């Protein structure tokens, strides 16, 4: 079980209710979980929280570089369809962060103290929610990292290719099945634009993340 650690827009953006984002990390402590479960977290989830009320650790997310804006309207798909119930998955409303693509714009999602929530030997996958609005870069680069007990970060994987946010939407796999080990104390997922393979003046969107074990 895991104990967590701590455009489609045209080039001219529509009129949006936005808020300039400063570099922010939100930490949300929560209380104990089952061995095999799903955790969703990110800017679109209710009360800046995870949709899994049993999650025992901390979930962080936020910009780590560049200038980002918070789009507080619903994603064009409305509420994430698999979060509409009142059970262990609550409602996520599709709110996102977005930025003009460039070398300084970076975003991250973190799970702290992961081996308290996931049983060693579990097979897990990670999906990113690609917004239908304010997400139009052709080469979004997602990387997955893990941290050991000595606080050293290690690169784990990437999808094997950049993600075309202009032609993708909804839940998109960024990490196929991997085996969780007790050495993996914390996880971090990072997002930036792979500018060498992209074009300028596109929006990059950061939505929610989903861990399935």
Structural class of the helices, strands and pairings? mainly beta
Order of secondary-structure elements = EEEEEEEEEEEEEEE
Helical content class: under 10%
Average of per-residue pLDDT values = 73
Oligomer category: single chain
How many helices does DSSP assign? Answer: 0
| Inertia-based shape | globular
Estimated share of beta-strand residues: 35-45%
Q: Could you tell me how far the N terminus lies from the C terminus, measured between alpha carbons in angstroms?
A: 9 Å
The value of Rg in angstroms is 16 Å
Tally of DSSP β-strands? 15
Largest sheet: 7 strands, antiparallel
Poorly predicted regions are: 1-35, 76-90
Q: What is this entry, summarized?
A:
This protein is mainly beta.
């Amino acid at each position: 079980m895991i104990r967590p650690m701590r455009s489609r827009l045209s080039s001219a953006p529509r009129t949006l209710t936005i808020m300039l984002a400063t570099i922010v990390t939100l930490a949300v402590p929560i209380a104990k979980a089952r061995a095999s479960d799903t955790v969703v977290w990110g800017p679109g989830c209710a009360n800046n929280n995870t949709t899994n009320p049993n999650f025992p650790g901390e979930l962080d997310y936020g910009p780590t570089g560049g200038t980002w804006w918070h789009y507080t309207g619903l994603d064009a798909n409305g509420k994430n369809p698999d979060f509409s119930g009142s059970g262990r998955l609550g409602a996520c409303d599709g709110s996102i962060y977005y930025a003009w693509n460039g070398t300084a714009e970076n975003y991250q999602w973190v799970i702290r103290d992961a081996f308290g929530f996931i049983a060693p030997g579990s097979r897990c996958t990670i999906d990113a929610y690609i917004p239908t609005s304010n997400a139009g870069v052709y080469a979004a680069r997602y990387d997955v990292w893990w941290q050991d007990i000595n606080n050293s970060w290690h690169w784990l994987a990437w999808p094997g290719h950049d993600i075309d946010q202009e032609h993708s939407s909804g839940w998109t796999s960024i990490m196929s099945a991997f085996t969780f080990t007790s050495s993996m104390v914390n996880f971090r997922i990072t997002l930036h634009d792979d500018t060498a393979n992209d074009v300028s003046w596109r929006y990059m969107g950061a939505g929610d993340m989903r861990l399935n074990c």
